[in-house]
Design brief:
Helices cover 50% and strands 10% of the residues. It is an alpha+beta fold and 365 residues long.
Length: 365
């Protein structure tokens, strides 16, 4: 029953976002969403280190008093980056995106950040405990009630790091005048964790790619509220000068190797959708084998394995084609000539003798 009412509320919120868009509120364009997806696939996420953090920055209930327009939202984002530097002694590195709640358009920001080097290991471990607790509550009570049951960061969850983040954002947005916002204005979650470093790195990259794909697909939450004005950029990075920016390398491969890579990437994309219980889109069903494909979550090591296996498969196909061609040239180099007065006849190929030619035998009458 709770899931039913939650789905009804979600549909009503989506309808509210569509109505705002219909009234002329300029949301994120299709071109900008494609550009965001390209950024996500091209960012060097290895620069986020072994302790990346999901951070959500929110506003109080009477948010229009504190963030009346797009330029104010942008000033708060920039101020958060400067406050990060003053609090932790290092320039922030990460990805940010601006969003608006579906129902009323309340602004908030999502950040994927490199955890501060001076963050104690205990703070990160307690962030992990809070992440697991939040996921369990969502599974047990649903998304909305699960978030309500999950405690905020601070105190036993996040330690001094959480305290600094809450203080920074409260000072930036409300001058630390709203007690409830000072306790709940920041939410922090950890990315996938595993004891094995190689597994953790691979799964973190996949989790990051999946999350960013979802961020680019949330079109309803890219529609600002009425009268909010120009939003500016909907996404970007901290640490651009440090090298956290899109990097694209063009690698040329042989045509048959490309075909094998395309087949494997197509299967990988379909398997991921099945694992997430998502239907294949109509575009994916209509895609031809010779058309290109974009798949996220593949790092340099995974690309090396993909290329090696594709190259080996292409070599095997080349060897089989060469063997067939040689066999044809040796055994099937004869030309049949019908006998005089014969209309039809069945032909039998004989292998060529050593040093001889292939022979064409006709059945005796």
């Amino acid at each position: 029953m709770a899931d039913y009412f939650e789905s009804k509320e979600l549909e009503a919120a989506r309808e509210a976002a569509r109505e705002r868009l219909g009234r002329g509120a300029k949301g994120m364009s299709e071109r900008s969403r494609r550009e965001m997806w390209r950024w996500v696939l091209s960012l060097p996420f290895e620069m986020l280190g072994d302790r990346p953090l999901w951070i959500t920055l929110t506003y109080p209930g009477d948010w229009r008093k504190w963030v009346p327009d797009g330029p104010t939202l942008e000033r708060h984002r920039r101020a958060f980056g400067e406050a990060w530097y003053r609090a932790f002694g290092e320039r922030p590195i990460g990805f940010w995106s601006k969003e608006f709640q579906l129902a009323e358009g309340r602004p908030h920001m999502h950040l994927l950040m490199k955890g501060p080097d001076r963050m104690p290991d205990l703070d990160y471990r307690t962030f992990q405990i809070l992440t697991r607790l939040g996921n369990e509550n969502v599974r047990k009570h649903g998304k909305r009630q699960g978030r309500w049951w999950t405690p905020p960061i601070g105190g036993g969850y996040g330690g001094q790091t959480a305290t600094e983040l809450l203080r920074m954002w409260s000072n930036i947005t409300t001058d630390a005048t709203m007690a409830n916002h000072a306790r709940r204005g920041v939410n922090v979650r950890t990315v996938f964790y595993a004891d094995n470093d190689e597994v953790a790195q691979r799964m973190r990259r996949s989790a990051i790619a999946a999350y960013m794909a979802g961020e680019a697909a949330k079109t309803g939450q890219k529609v600002p509220p009425d009268g909010f004005g120009t939003v500016g950029r909907y996404f970007g990075t901290f640490g651009y000068r440090a090298g956290f920016k899109p990097t694209v390398d063009l690698l040329e491969v042989e045509a048959d190797v490309w075909v094998q890579m395309n087949r494997r990437m197509t299967r990988l994309d379909a398997m991921r959708k099945v694992a997430r219980r998502r239907q294949l889109s109509e575009d994916a069903k209509r895609r031809k084998h010779w058309q290109g494909l974009t798949v996220g979550g593949i790092g340099p090591a995974e690309y090396g394995k993909l290329y090696a296996r594709s190259h080996a498969a292409a070599e095997r196909k080349r060897a089989r084609r060469t063997a067939v061609a040689v066999g044809d040239s040796r055994n099937r180099t004869a030309t049949s000539t019908p006998c005089p007065g014969q209309v039809e006849s069945s032909l039998t190929w004989r292998p060529a003798a050593a040093g001889g030619k292939a022979a064409l035998a006709m059945p005796q009458r």
